[in-house]
Amino acid sequence: MTPPTTLGDLKQTEWSEPRVHLRSVKEEMRHNLICMLEAGHEIFPGIVGYEETVVPHVINAVLARHNFILLGLRGQAKSRILRQLVTLLDEEIPILAGSEVNDNPFRPISKFGRQIVEEHGDRTPIEWIPRHRRYVEKLATPDVTIADMIGDVDPIKAARGGHLLSDELTIHYGLLPRSNRGIFAINELPDLAGKIQVGLFNIMQEGDVQIKGYPIRLALDVLLVFSANPEDYTARGKIITPLKDRVGSEILTHYPPSVEHGMEITQQEAWLERDGRALEIPDFIRELVERVAFEAREDKRIDRGSGVSQRLPISVLENVLSSAEQRSIVLKEKQVVPRVSDVYDALPAITGKIELEYEGELQGAERRAEGLRQRALRRLPQGILDGARPARRHRADGARSAEGPGHRGGGMRAGARGTGGASPHFPFGRAGLRALAFGAAAIRRARRHRDLVLSDAGHHRLTAVRLGRIQHRQARGRASGMDAGRQRVRGSCCTAGRAHPQGGGGARGAGPRARRAAGARARHLVARGVRRHGRAGLAAVRQRSRPRARDRGGDQPGRTAG
Question: Between residues 503 and 47, which one has the greater pLDDT?
Answer without folding.
Answer: 47
